Amino acid sequence: MRVGIMQPYIFPYIGYFQMINTVDKYVIYDDVQFIKGGWINRNKVLINGKASMITLKTKKDDFKLNINEISLVDNYEYEKNKVLKSIELAYSRAPYFSNTIGIIRDILNYKEKNLSKFIENSIVEICSFLDINTELIISSQIKKDTSLKAEEKVIHINKILGSDTYINVIAGMELYSKDKFKEQGIDLFFIKMKEVKYKQFNHDFIPNLSIIDVLMFNPKEEVKRLLSEYELV
Question: Among 86, 150, 171, 201, which has the highest number of CB atoms less than 10 A from its own CB?
Answer without folding.
Answer: 86
